[in-house]
Amino acid sequence: MPQLAPVRPATYAPPAPAPHPVAPDAVERCPSCGAERPARFCPECGEARVEAEDFTLRTFVSHAFEQFTSVDGALWRTLRALMLRPGQLTADWVAGRRRGYARPLQLFVLVNVAFFLLLSAAGTGFRFRLEQYTHGRVSTIVLRDTTAVQQAVARKAARERITVAEYARRFDAASGRQQSVWLLLAPSLGALLAVLYARRRRPFVQHLVFAIHFLAFMLLFLAAWMGTLSVVLHGVVRAARALPVEQRWLWPYVETFVRLANDDNVIGVPALAVVAAYLFVALRRVYPESWRWTLARTAVLAWVLPRLFDGYRDVLFAVTYYTT
């Protein structure tokens, strides 16, 4: 019987150490949307990676200059469409073509600030002094009784234990800081549009955006109109003062021109005609219908707009009166 070879005990071999796990490359995520950002720009939202150079003053100024001077900048593209193509901004916004344009409220705030800064620099604008209310030189809806306004001002000054003249200086200084009540015109005009186009059953926001774009145009146009009149008026007065003695017979004509240039009814009619023409074209583009219906609605809006401004002056007085 054959003998079996002895079984040798198996030698124990310790297991090889497991390789250390290789740490995957750190994945950079966009701080805006949280998506992976393998390159400088996020593929989801386009947010750029912040570089050290972005925090230098030179880069900051160059980027700001580029935004305001580039022909492809959103602000300038928005302003061109606003001034040259009535209603196009609203039509694009409603249709969803919003890329490359400034947002409606952002545009309105920027235009509002620029409007009052420019007209303040020109020495004109919508800043109303207390004397204009107490003597009825400001057109309003509520404050028609100048005697009642004078009595209210006198009571206010007595409560504050100051003179009427001192309170007038306080009122005039505060009036220039209350121009933000102008923003109330947009929802008022939007509500009127919602009534005029109630059959369209459009969301109120669409009417509000139209009102914002239209008022932004009107602010820019009025700034250009009133600024130009102010420059021309000052130029005519300076030229008249420099006239030699033998040409002083022209002074009555200069005085007539100055009086007409300061008459709201005279300078307001051409401005209202331009605004009404713009409004007609804008309405036709955003609310397509026959020109007769559009003309009728334009006439209603053109009649209401001056009343909205009168109400604005009432609100401006009330806000300034009760906060000073």
TrEMBL record:
Biased composition regions of type Pro residues, renumbered to the chain: 12-22
Signal peptide start and end residues: none
Transmembrane spans: 107-128, 180-198, 210-233, 267-287
UniProt KW keywords: Membrane, Transmembrane, Transmembrane helix
Compositional bias per record (Low complexity), positions renumbered to this chain: 1-11
Database matches in Pfam families: DUF3667
InterPro entries in alphabetical order: DUF3667
DNA-binding is among the record's keywords: no
Ranges for region Disordered: 1-23
Keyword Nucleotide-binding (UniProt): no
Protein name stated in the entry: DUF3667 domain-containing protein
Upper taxonomic lineage: Bacteria, Pseudomonadati, Gemmatimonadota, Gemmatimonadia, Gemmatimonadales
